[in-house]
């Protein structure tokens, strides 16, 4: 079997043909696929200067008695493109080879080993029942920050406490833009109340003030809190 190198709208120098023969080792390819019929390498060039970093494209086509395997790559020169395409071709050949080998060497798996080889397979307990039919175990409870969470529950990634001096709304907007966030929590210097300024649309902003109301405090449970709306 020979390697056929051809150019599409470009000349292929003899130096490149030699590089192809050195890069695509026929002995190595035939070890991975012993039924190879032909191996074609096509080189093309993109004249668009905006695609200078991908101007040279190499496509390798391997035909055998099995499925046709192709690998292509583009780079700033044909040698780099060939190297990339050759790596892709070898990876695909190895996958095809390993698939054939695993099918040929497949064996029947004893029932006791099914769960070890097949992910998600049902397993039996000592009484012959599927383990999914057993009584569910108690869901563990863990402490995350100031929350008690059951199972995987909501995750508090980070909990922070800041000491902040009261500031005006203009100062809060400035601070928000400074840190690049979409909202900013601050203490209003006029009302002395915790407030949030947040970005709405384009250059529009919104502000929310929290005010303590003893009637609301008694009417709702201690866990109740305000919601950010806009």
UniProtKB/TrEMBL annotation:
Q: Which SUPFAM superfamilies match?
A: Ribosome binding protein Y (YfiA homologue)
> Major location, coarse class?
cytoplasm
The subcellular location is: Cytoplasm
Q: Which keywords belong to this entry?
A: Cytoplasm, Translation regulation
Sequence ranges assigned to domain Sigma 54 modulation/S30EA ribosomal protein C-terminal in this UniProt record: 154-207
The record's similarity note reads: Belongs to the HPF/YfiA ribosome-associated protein family. Long HPF subfamily.
Q: Could you give the subunit structure recorded for this chain?
A: Interacts with 100S ribosomes.
Stated role: Required for dimerization of active 70S ribosomes into 100S ribosomes in stationary phase; 100S ribosomes are translationally inactive and sometimes present during exponential growth.
Record protein name field: Ribosome hibernation promoting factor
């Amino acid at each position: 079997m020979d390697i056929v190198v051809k150019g599409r709208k470009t000349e292929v120098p003899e130096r490149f043909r030699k590089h192809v023969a050195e890069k695509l080792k026929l002995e190595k390819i035939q070890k991975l696929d012993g039924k190879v019929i032909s191996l074609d390498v096509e080189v093309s060039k993109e004249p668009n200067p905006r695609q200078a970093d991908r101007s040279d494209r190499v496509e390798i086509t391997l035909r055998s008695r099995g499925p046709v395997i192709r690998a292509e790559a583009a780079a700033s020169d044909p040698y780099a493109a060939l190297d990339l395409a050759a790596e892709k071709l070898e990876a695909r050949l190895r996958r095809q080879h390993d698939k054939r080998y695993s099918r040929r060497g497949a064996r029947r798996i004893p029932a006791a080993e099914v769960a070890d080889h097949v992910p998600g397979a049902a397993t039996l307990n000592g009484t012959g029942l599927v383990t999914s039919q057993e009584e569910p175990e108690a869901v563990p409870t863990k402490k995350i920050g100031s929350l008690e969470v059951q199972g995987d529950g909501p995750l508090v990634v980070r909990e922070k406490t800041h000491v902040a001096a009261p500031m005006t709304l203009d100062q809060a907007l400035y601070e928000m833009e400074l840190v690049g966030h979409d909202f900013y929590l601050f203490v209003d210097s006029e009302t002395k109340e915790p407030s949030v300024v947040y970005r709405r649309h384009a250059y529009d902003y919104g502000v929310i003030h929290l005010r303590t109301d003893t009637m609301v405090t008694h009417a709702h449970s201690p866990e109740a809190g305000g919601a950010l709306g806009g």
